[in-house]
Write a structure and sequence with these properties.
This protein is α/β, with parallel strands linked by helices. Helix content is 33%, strand content 26%. Helix 1 packs across helix 6 (223-236) and helix 2 (69-78) runs parallel beside helix 3. The chain binds NADPH dihydro-nicotinamide-adenine-dinucleotide phosphate and the ligand O=C(O)C1=N[C@H](C(=O)O)C[C@H](O)C1. It is found in: Cytoplasm.
């Protein structure tokens, strides 16, 4: 039985994750953490601060807010507890802190827990050697009107993978509102749309002379992220200290086939 702490249990993702964990006979929720602990009637104890929890757990799954990162990393290191980080909106310093913490505990960190986005990234990076000379690359992401960060963590993740393929020579341009000059070759345009209940859409557009290619992923429910996070939690409890992502999980599933 994998004993799980849900960090951000009363957020939208925290509630979807609770439902999926409760249906999983290999997992048990031992506690939730949230700044509004009494917002819902949960079947598990909810604490305002992770340091208030005094029981045993095997892993923490975090869908919360970057505000909590320092406490979350301190607690996980102090208690030698594997961590799944799904929260987005981190600063470059936050990301360095996650990388440093992963020297002391196993951390699974991904801005998108769906399998589909991982495949989108694979397809996009495969297309780059053929298209890079003559096509411009733009990323468009669309999300619900309750999302706190923009652009999405996934848009950054996709842009970073594209940039790696260009040996980190690309410049990110967020929207074009204040731009008074033509597009340059070494740009990746990143654009955010917010509205209604859109769960999450990411498109990568390769725009060339008289033709475009668009590779798109659409999420139709938050469940895909919760299911991915649970798989990540079951994976990370058996790993050595270090930083892991969806590629590691997919590779381990393929090896077990
Ligand atoms: N990696 C992935 O696959 C996915 C990642 N996410 C990410 O997970 C995170 C949570 O998403 P979601 O559940 O939709 O968000 P919610 O806003 O619904 O929940 C976030 C939780 O954090 C709390 N919170 C929000 N803002 C603050 C703040 N400024 N200071 C302290 N606490 C705060 C909320 O409390 P309160 O309700 O009181 O505001 C709530 O408990 C986001 O970063 C999102 O981008 C989401 C889906 C998939
Ligand atoms: O806030 C969300 O909802 C989502 N956030 C993630 C992100 O910022 O990339 C992943 C997913 O698209 C949903």
């Amino acid at each position: 039985m994998v004993k799980v702490i849900i960090h951000g249990c009363n957020g939208n993702m925290g509630q979807v994750l609770s439902k999926h964990l409760q249906q999983d006979n290999q997992c048990q929720i031992v506690a939730g953490i949230d700044r509004s602990p009494n917002k819902y009637k949960n079947d598990y104890p909810v604490y305002k601060d992770i340091f208030d929890f005094e029981g045993n757990a095997d892993v923490i799954i975090d869908f919360s807010n970057p505000y909590y990162l320092p406490g979350l990393l301190d607690y996980s290191i102090e208690n030698n507890m594997p961590l799944v980080i799904a929260t987005t909106g981190f600063s470059p310093k936050d990301i360095k802190d996650i990388e440093n913490a992963a020297k002391n505990i196993p951390i699974f960190y991904s801005s998108n827990m769906s399998l589909g986005i991982n495949v989108l990234i694979e397809l996009v990076t495969k297309a780059i050697p053929t298209l890079s000379d003559s096509f411009d690359i733009e990323i468009i992401e669309k999300h619900h009107n309750q999302k706190a960060d923009a652009p999405s963590g996934t848009a950054y993740m996709i842009a970073n993978k594209i940039n790696e393929a260009f040996k980190n020579t690309m410049e990110y341009v967020f929207g074009r509102y204040s731009k008074k000059e033509k597009r340059r070759k070494n740009e990746i345009g990143i654009h955010a749309v917010r509205g209604g209940t859109i769960v999450g859409e990411h498109s990568v557009i390769f725009a060339g002379q008289d033709e475009t290619i668009e590779i798109k992923h659409s999420a139709f429910s938050k469940s895909i992220f919760a299911i991915g996070a649970i798989k990540a939690a079951k994976y990370i409890v058996n790993q050595e200290n270090g930083l892991y992502d969806m590629n590691n999980l997919v590779a381990s599933n393929n090896n077990n086939k």
